[in-house]
Amino acid sequence: MHESEGIEIGLYTLGDLVADPFTGKTISVGQRMKEVLAAAKLADEAGLDIFGVGEHHRLDYAISSPPVVLASIAQMTERIKLTSATTVLSTIDPVRLFEDFATLDLLSDGRAEIIAGRGAFVESFPLFGYDTNDYDALFTENLDLLLKLNENERMTWDGQFRPSLRNAEIAPRPLQKELPVWVGVGGTPSSAARAGKLGAGMAMAILGGDPARFKPLVDVYHQAGIEAGHDVEDLKVGVTGHAYIAETTQQAKDEFYPYYSNYWSYVNGQRGMSSRKMARTDFEQLTAPETALFVGSPQQIVEKILHQYELFGHRRFMAQMDIGGLPFEKVVKSIELLATEVAPIVRKATRKDTVLTVIN
């Protein structure tokens, strides 16, 4: 989408396999995959701008190979951009990654993107033979190499972790001049500075709390990018977050609470933390109007997105809706409301020729 048309609105999924808190049943991996494809097709038909799939290497997630899933989605969609969300860059060969997404770009007529991150889990390190002590060094080297591969058809390169390249042919080349590469940033200024210095986009995961606490990251990102000689117009910020939309805010909270509580109980248990269910009073605080959890009526979601736009001036918002065992029919309704009642208003309000009304 051209910048004059306002910010991009889209979806992402991690394909988590979580038992429904009411039935205790978990859908099959095959069914989960079908639902991911159906959500992407619906998002494309409804006019959303971007669809992303995450990467995990665990039995409780359905997706370990984003480019394969996205290639399937490419064949059933026409215009929606397709991205990883995120690629665990520390434990993948950047050459293989580039080739996979360049192939996806050709298959999708130029719709492929990469969001590169470190990932929330570390199971891919022993799985692929990497040392978690090299966590940061691997990411730094692989990101540098990926960006160079994006620019050069032939490469000579030396690094610490991967075999050297000597006038290597990097094929195929994508349909786009270069693949758009974003760096997923959790909350550290050093990560924001690195993304800015490299001139990559910065995708911030803002899953709750006061979004204003992320404003310093955006400032660091822009400052580092400008100091490195990048045009400020090329320094793109994206926001990702959990979302659920219903006709009214009360309905949205009532419907989403059991699944959101279920999701965090499950994720915290995976991380060795307390897996107790979230209290409804805590959920009410997390969904308050001034917070970053996008649960509410279309108007409430519009106001939250525009409030963040005032803070960050971001170019993209991506929502994760299908968490905690949420039934697919509820995901579908939420996607439809995002596409028909939220996205048009947000795009209009964030067009470059529109003066944004400050929302208190």
From TrEMBL:
Protein name as catalogued: LLM class flavin-dependent oxidoreductase
Q: Name one Pfam family in it.
A: Bac_luciferase
The residue stretches assigned to a coiled coil in this entry are none
Its lineage reads: Bacteria, Bacillati, Bacillota, Bacilli, Bacillales
PANTHER family of this UniProt entry? Answer: BLR5498 PROTEIN, LUCIFERASE-LIKE MONOOXYGENASE
Q: Which InterPro entries does the record match to this protein?
A: Bact_Lucif_Oxidored, Luciferase-like_dom, Luciferase-like_sf
Domain (Luciferase-like) spans: 26-311
Keywords of this protein's UniProt record, alphabetized?
Monooxygenase, Oxidoreductase
